[in-house]
Automatic annotation (TrEMBL):
Gene Ontology CC terms: ATP-binding cassette (ABC) transporter complex
Phylogenetic placement of the source organism: Bacteria, Pseudomonadati, Pseudomonadota, Alphaproteobacteria, Hyphomicrobiales
Membrane-spanning intervals of the chain: none
Domain ABC transporter, chain residue ranges per copy: 4-226
Protein name: ABC transporter
Sequence similarity: Belongs to the ABC transporter superfamily.
Intracellular or extracellular location(s): Cell inner membrane
Record keywords: ATP-binding, Nucleotide-binding, Transport
GO molecular function: ABC-type transporter activity; ATP binding; ATP hydrolysis activity
Topology of this chain in the membrane: Peripheral membrane protein
Amino acid sequence: IFDLELNSIGKVYDNGTPAVTDFNLSVTKGEFIAFLGPSGCGKTTTLRMIAGFETISSGDMLIRGERMNDVPPQRRPTSMIFQNYALFPHMSVRRNVGYGLEVKGLSKADREAKVDRILATLGLEDIAERKPEKLSGGQRQRIALARGLVVEPDILLLDEPLGALDANLRKAIQNELKLLQKSLGVTFIFVTHAQSEALALSDRIVVMNQGRVEQISPPHQLYTRP
Ligand code: ADP
Ligand code: ADP
């Protein structure tokens, strides 16, 4: 059974824009998948359909065999990480990370245990009581990652999460992402327009163009014909 199956999914926005057409993909648990392609090719739309932030216009989406088309985002086993971090500036790091668990109604003790564990995993213990607005871009992205992972999703969705970071930091966080993904065994789906990033990180690269999948290849076969 696959972690994620996209069976010919498509998206036509209300204004008639056909953003994604006939997208097929089966993902195994623990895989690192990159969606690669130029701006406007439909990467973010596809990611948002998987997360449940956009309705699916056609086709079926399954997570571990269960049809997800009509399941609201908060009931899907997915978390999404955004390029702009989307952290609450006035809340401490600890509260930001625990927020999703609060929404889910977990007890304080359960929340604290989970939050402490993920803060330690990402090396954020020392800044747990600080506010995000005082922290660096790299630290903020780690906090956003912690917030996505603390709910123990099956699938982590990352929308150009390194785009706002400088080159050195991007490299460092790339390495951390890869280690984290291997150690947690979580499926990662990563959107990028940077070929180097897709090559460095992923097990398979989904190359998109104008709303369609052009090819799906492991990095070492990206430039050879299937
Ligand atoms: P990205 O580079 O991540 O694709 P964009 O700048 O294209 O981001 O889009 C930013 C936001 O604007 C997104 O929420 C997207 O859904 C929305 N958007 C993009 N294109 C259109 C459009 N033609 N009409 C309405 N909203 C759009
Ligand atoms: P990418 O993430 O690859 O940059 P998007 O998924 O953001 O691509 O966009 C795919 C297409 O859908 C683009 O033509 C974009 O302008 C359009 N689009 C994105 N969001 C919206 C929206 N909310 N309404 C209408 N069109 C949109």
